[in-house]
Fold this sequence. Notes:
Helices cover 43% and strands 16% of the residues. It is of the alpha+beta class. The protein folds into 2 domains: 2-112, no CATH class; 141-308, Glutaredoxin (3-Layer(aba) Sandwich), CATH 3.40.30.10. The strands form 3 sheets. The chain has a 4-stranded antiparallel β-sheet. Strands 8-7-9-10 form a 4-stranded mixed β-sheet, with helices on both faces. A hairpin with a 2-residue loop joins strand 4 (88-95) and strand 5 (98-105).
Amino acid sequence: MEEQSAVKEEKKEVRTVYVSNNKNPWMIYTAVLAVIVVVLAFFLYSGRGGVTGDVIDKDKAAEKLVAYLNSRTGGGVELVSSEEDGSLYKVMVSYQGDEIPVYVTKDGEYFVQGVVPITASESTPNNSTQTTEVPKSDKPKVELFIWGYCPYGVQAQGPLAEVAKLLGEYADFEAVLYYDGHGAYETQQNKIQACIQEIDPDKYWNYAAGFVTDIYPKCGSSRDIDCDKTESIKLMKSLGISSTNVMDCLDSQGADLIAEHAKRASEYGVTGSPTLVINGVKVNTARTAEAFKTAVCGAFNTAPQECSQTLDSSADTASGNC
C-alpha cells in the first residue's frame, strides 16, 4: 500500500502541446492530439497494469481517453477500436477523417501518444539517415512498406516519389501495400497501387505523387470507397495509365498481389507503416526527399551522378507510424 501511495504521488499533470505546421493538415491533427506525459512510475510498476497499479477494462479505458481527447480538441474524436498492447491499451481513434493509434495506461489514467524504445541511442535528425549497414549493389532495391491511407505512409510516399523520379533509371523502387487497417476503401487503393506497379510500373511513382496531393486529401477524409475509385481512375487517365486494365487486375489479381506484399512484410519483420527497406535491410531515416536520396545513394557500388543533386530537405515536425 505504501508503494502504491508513493506511485500516486508521482502523477504529473497532463499537458497538451500544440504545434503549427501549415504544410500538412495531418500534422496539425496529430499535434492537436499530442500530449507529453511524465510517467516514470509506469515503467516501474507496468507489471501491475497502470501507474496506480489498477487495471480497468480496455473499452472503459478507451472511453475515458476519447472523452479526454474531445475535451482538448473541442470534439470530433471517435472511438474505432481498442486492444491490449503489452503494458498499455492501444486505442484507434478517428479524427478529421484520419484513423490514429494512441495509447492509454491500463488504469485509464494516462494518455501516451507514443512510446520510444530506450534502446535507441539518439533521435534521428530531420535531414540525416541513422547509420545502418546496408549491402551495396549495382542496382539497389528500394521498398517502401505502407498502408494506402496511413497518414504516416503518405508522409513518406511523396518524398520517395521524388527520389524515384530522380534515380528510377538506376534503382528498383517499389511500394509494398501490405495492410488495410482502415477498411474497404484502403483495401481497394492497396490493390490499385499494386496493380499499377504490375501493369505500368514506369508510371507508378507519378501516380503515387498524385495520390498524395490529390486523392488522399479528398478521399482520406470522406473514407468513401466510391471517391477512392473515381479519383483513382481520373488520376490514372491523366497519366496515360489504362484504368480498365488496372481495375481488371484489381478483380483478378489484386488479392494475390496484396497477399504477396503481406508475406514479404512478415518476412522482413515489418510492423509499421512506413518502413523503408533497401537491399533487404530496414533503414531508419528522416522522411524527406533528401534523406531518402542519401539512403539510396549510399547503397550503390558506384553512385550515379544524379546523387549529387540536392532534393527537398524540409520535413514535418512530427513522425509516427500506423
